[in-house]
Amino acid sequence: MGAERSPPASRDSLWMRRALELAAHAAARDEVPVGAVLVRDDAMLGEGWNQPISANDPTAHAEIVALRQAAQRERNYRLPGTTLYVTLEPCCMCAGALIHARVQRVVFGAFDPRTGAAGSVFDILQSPLHNHRIEMLGGVLDQECGDLLRGFFQDRR
């Protein structure tokens, strides 16, 4: 299974650019540069950037921050009909949260060959063992997303 690689649609690119802005925001705060935006009907419901270091919270990944913000806004932990845009393939923790929130679709930038849970290492989002499977599209603005991550880690070496 795994995420499909496909040329990005214009709306996907637009929202991924916003996620990239949020990832740059994380990098400026010495956090791993990952940004996420949750959208329904072309309206932003929640957004976030990685902040586990500054928040002293191992769960403060960009995806979780965006989900929390959207759930508070919607006054519901279920977020059907939404699309999450994130600059890096979600990890296992984030994939589980996305399933529980009933997110409809995940669009991500860079594939994560070490811990990716959308098909690179694990295929949690589409596992037949869950009662909810998430549509996926990977590789949207992958060069820009990957460059931001690579630059961040090169600067720290």
Query: Radius of gyration, rounded?
Result: 14 Å
For the termini, the CA-CA separation is 35 Å
Quaternary structure state of the chains depicted: single chain
Strand order of the largest sheet: 1-6-5-4-2-3
What's the helix-strand series?
Answer: EHEEHHEHEEH
Low-confidence stretches: none
Question: Would you tell me the overall average pLDDT?
Answer: 94
Total strand segments: 6
Overall geometry = globular
The major pleated sheet works out as: 6 strands, mixed
Please indicate the percent range of residues in DSSP E strands (runs of 2 or more): 15-25%
Helical content class: 25-40%
Number of helices: 5
Q: What structural class do helix, strand and pairing data support?
A: alpha/beta
Describe this entry's structure for a reader:
With 157 residues, the chain is an alpha/beta fold. The protein is 39% helix and 20% strand. It contains five helices and six strands; from the N terminus they run E-H-E-E-H-H-E-H-E-E-H. It has helices at residues 10-28, 52-55, 62-74, 92-101, 142-156, and strands at residues 4-5, 35-40, 43-49, 83-88, 105-110, 135-138. A six-stranded mixed β-sheet has the order 1-6-5-4-2-3. Helix 1 (10-28) packs parallel to helix 5 (142-156). The radius of gyration is 14 Å and the shape is globular. The termini are far apart. The model has no long low-confidence stretch (mean pLDDT 94).
